[in-house]
Amino acid sequence: MTRKPFSTPDVNRKAKLEAFDRLLTVMDELRENCPWDKKQTWETLRHLTIEETYELSDAILENQAIEVKKELGDLMLHNVFYARIAQEKQQFDVADVLNSICDKLIERHPHVYGDVVANDEKTVKENWEKIKLRTGNTSVLEGVPKSLPALVKAIRIQDKARGVGFDWEKKEQVWQKVEEEMREFQAEFNGADEKPIDHQKAMAEFGDLLFSLVNYARFIQIDPEEALERTNKKFIKRFQFLERESAKDGKKLGEMSLAEMDSYWERAKSM
Fold it and tell me: Which conformational region is residue 92 in: left (phi greater than 0), alpha (psi within -120 to 50 degrees), or beta?
């Protein structure tokens, strides 16, 4: 095995190892002495881990380094917590977890730890998916968690398919697909007329339209999940401005006309 040396020595490695050892010690002490920590299981921690992950995502989108540090610490604690519970059941411990991920990374980076040549990101991803198929996966889509939110799942599905070469060649082709799906959706749900619609068909066509838009976003290197979340945050900020400023003027939202609310909205957009 060819192992490439670090370009820069890690002068803080000793401090990092000591900090991780400290976390393991604190985890052991809490598990043995704290009534709440003693009661926790994988199942009771699961929803808390999901919440912490979203909090990390929020901190990243807000570019708040201090908050990112805090949320990474929370998630690090959860990782150690899960491993400690498994250790008690004699299933595995944190050393097994860390060695397992190291082994996987080394195996799936033969361009770093072997003689394979990969000079660009595309080749690295293709090699990654091929290696996974050789090591037991029967489908390239097996690694996509079933419980992922639909938008994120669409991104991962398309990334996985691209990794084995199943992808459009040009972005123009992808946009043509978007336009095709839009026409099909309009055929099922035309808001200009009053005819009843088949909601099942309309929903299916709308799903196809969303999937094609996600595909186009991926093709032009836009993360649709991040794009939508940034728009969510922008809407919240503007709507809360509307609420705050109209209240200062002695107005109540439920009693305002749409034109009045629009005037505050336009002011919010200029902020």
Answer: beta
Q: Mapping DSSP to helix (H, G, I), strand (E, B) and coil, where does residue 19 land? A: helix
- Looking at 55-59, 163-167, 179-183, which range is the least confident one? 163-167
- 135 pLDDT more than 80: no
Local structure of 134: helix, strand or coil = helix
Q: Which of 116, 121, 130 has its CA nearest to residue 164?
A: 130
By the 8 A CB rule, do 72 and 65 touch? no
Q: Kindly report the number of other CB atoms within 10 A of residue 113's CB atom.
A: 15
Which structure tokens are listed for 214? 């996600």
| CA angle (105, 111, 113) in 5-degree steps | 60
Q: Which of 123, 125, 129, 23 is nearest to 79 (CA)?
A: 23
What are the residues whose beta carbons fall under 8 Å from the beta carbon of 33, sequence distance 6 or more? Answer: none
**DSSP string computed for 59-80:** HHHTT-HHHHHHHHHHHHHHHH
Distances in Å between the Cα of 225 and the Cα atoms of 61, 146, 152, 156, 229 are 11, 17, 6, 11, 6
Neighbours of 83 (CB within 10 A): 20
pLDDT of residue 254: 87
